[in-house]
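This section describes the prediction task in plain terms. A model, or a person checking by hand, is given the sequence of a single protein chain and must write out its three-dimensional structure as a string of tokens. No templates, partner chains or ligands are provided. The sample shown here is typical of the held-out split.
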Amino acid sequence: MATGDLKGSLRKIEQGLRLLNYPRDVDYTVLLKGDPAAFLPIISYSFTSFSTYIAELLVKCDVELTAKSDLRFIEAIYKLLRDQFQYKPILTKQQFLQFGFAERKMQIVCDIINCVVKKHKELSNSNKVKSQTRKKLRSLKYEVWSNCGNVFADPSGSALNSKQVDTYSEIRIFQSTLRNLITLNNNKRDINAFITVYGREP
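The expected answer:
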């Protein structure tokens, strides 16, 4: 964002606030004065309320932003921006908390919004991949255990897996039963009981 264009900076701020779904009213005349009190709530919302993924990141990084003085808040924000977003604001902490520097503060806030939205998307996509991986593992486990019935056959030679294991608890029961059969050295009576439960339709 080039300096010397206050109207352009205001448009960028407006776009960023829409991106955040920022719920509060913003006094743009106060922003133009460079009043830090107008910028701090936007920054706070960006990190604490916009995204649960970002809020969880703060917890993971042991960053607390509530119940702090303006100076302590900005110190925590600058450290977070440096460590987690590799971003260094163009103003010092002291300059940010002074009146003035309106356009540069708008630039910093816009950069923060962009950083937060980008990180939110990264964490969201990562979470989707993990979730899909867990589903695939559960599906694979189901497939392995449901096919284990092929190991056991009745006298006619037909497979005994006509009843499909369709829940996790049933898989656990299946595993436990199988372990018991092995422990009992394939006792014929227990195998017949196993076949009765898992191998044939009622």
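For orientation: Residues 151-155, 157-162 have pLDDT under 50 and may be disordered.
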